[in-house]
Q: What sequence folds into this?
């Protein structure tokens, strides 16, 4: 039992302090060992179970959408606009394009503003009144129900312009994206070590350049994740579009006209009394969720393309 | 070429803590000057005052005069400009993790807007050679992240990065304290060679290191500079009792 120390050189201390030898073979020690292993399995098992529970809804939704919607997917679905009531066929081409336009518009507005506000919070607004006010506002804005956002934009833009428009829809979604992006950007910038900023400042790099080219770049993987979360969330929003983009049964790509969008079309068809339209609504939902998954995956691949060996 | 530094009546504070008290010192050009003293005595604050990094901390301030040659760095120039002329190497290697080795080394140039590829390539090679790292990384310059190197290599890369902007003074804040003995001796060799071109100020806890690399040594204690003299004199026959106590290991 006490063989472990025999290979070590003799201690220069003439009388080293003696410690009683450890005995790992008592019944108490063996029981302790079993307990520790048991707890280890228990916690690992609980973590795996939780992971499975998280994945089940996604798989279930995908499978159900495939089951209900895949049969209605054909070339017409992607190339034609909705057929008038009573006529068979028709598709959602205008809704797919419309959703693309609204989301591009909202990303073009929401991502730069959201990131810029996050940079302000993390780099300049710490402990200042304006910083705290922006942070509080972002958190409250995050909790505003989407229908309220729709009504607010209706009052602010649609009522002023006296017509519904793709632009108003884009603004509504952009405002919904901003709080998520702002707060993630702030959190991610806070994880960039101070020593890296000092490295840049110590080279005579101005502070704004340090923030943009060093801090923001180091935090970019997390910020991109935040942008993707915000994007995926608003891509499926219906309520903010009801009073802003309105929806459109015909082709329109004008920012000043009411425009079709997948969530709106799904809502309209799902509420209708016609079986044919119900099937199209399922197909639309399938296309929407696949579009979101594909765009998020593409951004991930694109963002990782320039990654270096051994970086973090 | 290096330039001498003249420090007169330098005082520094963090909040209400008076970290540096009336420091007066002349650091000769193209020599290595070591600063020793127990933790918290103000050595790091002192070197951070020499390139105005001290004031990047919002609660910190400093008064007094620091002259590099004829230039009063607190009056005549902006902090950004002085940091281009006074390079700094930190205690822990701090590579930019998203940048390749190449980009790390030339980052001081690139981030300040230089784009001439030929100049960048030459600077990268020259700096890495000066930092004795070229042979180890020349095949992975643009493939590997700067953070993928070992700790000792990272620190030499940080030295290459600091000298790539061609400073006149190189400040080193315990550059070898996080490294193993082999890397440490490489960095000490480096300091010995770099003296020809730069004025070097090195903070160290390792007194053998101070004795090996520096011509002059200053001893700091509780925010004051107790003694400044040739390294030989400090280590063999110090004038002040406190210096002698510290060097012989009676405290600190």
A:
């Amino acid at each position: 039992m006490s063989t472990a120390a025999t290979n070590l050189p003799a201690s220069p201390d003439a009388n080293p302090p003696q410690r009683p030898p450890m005995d790992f073979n008592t019944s108490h020690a063996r029981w302790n060992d079993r307990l520790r292993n048991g707890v280890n399995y228990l916690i690992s098992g609980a973590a795996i179970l939780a992971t499975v529970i998280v994945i089940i809804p996604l798989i279930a939704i995908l499978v159900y959408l495939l089951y209900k919607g895949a049969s209605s997917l054909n070339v017409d679905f992607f190339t034609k606009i909705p057929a008038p009531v009573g006529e068979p066929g028709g598709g959602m081409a205008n809704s797919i394009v419309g959703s693309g336009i609204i989301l591009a518009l909202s990303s073009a507005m929401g991502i730069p503003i959201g990131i810029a506000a996050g940079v302000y919070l993390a780099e300049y607004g710490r402990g200042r009144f304006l910083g705290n006010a922006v942070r509080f506002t972002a958190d409250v804005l995050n909790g505003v129900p989407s229908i309220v956002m729709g009504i607010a934009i209706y009052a602010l833009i649609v009522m002023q312009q006296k017509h519904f428009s793709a632009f108003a829809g884009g603004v509504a979604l952009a405002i919904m994206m901003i709080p998520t992006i702002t707060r993630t950007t702030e959190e991610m910038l806070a994880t960039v070590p101070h020593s890296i900023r000092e490295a840049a400042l110590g080279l005579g790099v101005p502070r704004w350049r340090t923030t943009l080219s060093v801090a923001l770049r180091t935090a970019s993987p997390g910020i991109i994740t935040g942008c993707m979360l915000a994007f995926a969330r608003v891509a499926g929003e219906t309520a903010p579009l009801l009073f802003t983009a309105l929806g459109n049964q015909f082709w329109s790509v004008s920012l000043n006209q009411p425009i079709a969008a997948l969530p709106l079309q799904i809502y309209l068809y799902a509420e209708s009394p016609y079986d044919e339209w119900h099937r199209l609504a399922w197909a639309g939902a399938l296309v929407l969720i696949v579009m979101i998954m594909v765009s998020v995956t593409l951004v991930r691949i694109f963002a990782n393309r320039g990654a270096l060996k051994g970086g973090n | 070429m290096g330039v001498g530094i003249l420090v007169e009546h330098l005082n520094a504070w963090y909040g209400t803590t008076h970290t540096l008290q009336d420091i007066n010192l002349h650091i000769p050009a193209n020599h290595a000057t070591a600063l020793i003293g127990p933790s918290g005595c103000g050595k790091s604050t002192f070197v951070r005052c020499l390139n105005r990094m001290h004031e990047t901390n919002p609660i910190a301030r400093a008064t007094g005069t620091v002259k590099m040659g004829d230039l009063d760095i607190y009056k005549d120039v902006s902090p950004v400009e002085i940091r281009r002329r006074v390079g700094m190497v930190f205690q822990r290697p701090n590579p930019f993790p998203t940048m390749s080795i190449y980009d790390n080394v030339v980052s001081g140039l690139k981030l300040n807007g230089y784009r001439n590829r030929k100049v960048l390539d030459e600077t990268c090679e020259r700096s890495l050679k000066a930092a004795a790292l070229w042979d180890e990384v020349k095949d992975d310059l643009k493939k590997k992240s700067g953070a993928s190197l070992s700790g000792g290599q990272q620190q030499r890369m940080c030295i290459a990065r600091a000298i790539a902007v061609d400073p006149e003074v190189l400040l080193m804040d315990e550059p070898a304290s996080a490294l193993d003995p082999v890397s440490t001796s490489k960095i000490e060799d480096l300091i010995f060679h770099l003296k020809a071109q730069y004025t070097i100020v090195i903070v160290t806890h390792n007194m053998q290191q101070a004795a090996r690399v520096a011509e002059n040594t200053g001893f700091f204690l509780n925010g004051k500079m107790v003694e400044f003299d040739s390294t030989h004199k400090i280590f063999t026959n110090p004038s002040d009792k406190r210096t002698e106590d510290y060097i012989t290991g009676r405290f600190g």
Q: What stands out?
A: The CA atoms of residues 159 and 232 of chain B lie 27 Å apart. The longest helix of chain B spans residues 117-130. The two ends of chain B are 36 Å apart (CA to CA).
